[in-house]
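Hey team,

Sharing the RNA polymerase sigma factor run so nobody has to redo it. Sequence (180 residues) first:
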Amino acid sequence: MSLEQLIENCKINDTKAQSELYKLFSSKLFSVCLKYSRNYAEAEDNLQDAFLTIFKKIEQYKNKGSFEGWLKRVTVNTVLQQYRNEKVFEIVNENIIDDVELDVDDESLSIDYLLKIIQELPDRYRLVFNLYVLDGYSHKDIADMLDINIGTSKSNLARARQILKQTIETDKTNQRVQSL
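Structure output:
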């Protein structure tokens, strides 16, 4: 069955088609969920919520543009909505700090290690960091997505980079990096 037919069948709530779509895209969308979640278990929950939203909103996909891109946007928005509901982005009075350069080209830093320390960031820093650095959104886009102002987005990114840099430096000193 073609992807177009699979999508059409999902639009009429065909459970076999929904199952097939899940099998086809769940691993890619799980990696998106993992990037934005606090841990593995939360990522699993977010994936299930994302697919519920996908099946509810699949009528909105009009076969224009990348279907996979649409799935990723729905998934990211579903996860971000959870954080908006938890009021992760309540106004916190923070001093704007200078942007910190974060050098992650060091070969001793594994992807698993980087993912782990990114997941350890406080929610508002992790979400902005992932949206800006890993997914390439602008501060304006992030501000719109998270219902925050642009200055808050920039401040949260700078703070995330500062925390990651400190964590890497501390872990290198403590040799944690080599053990991961």
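The chain has two domains: 3-85, 111-179.

Ping me if you want the raw files.
A.
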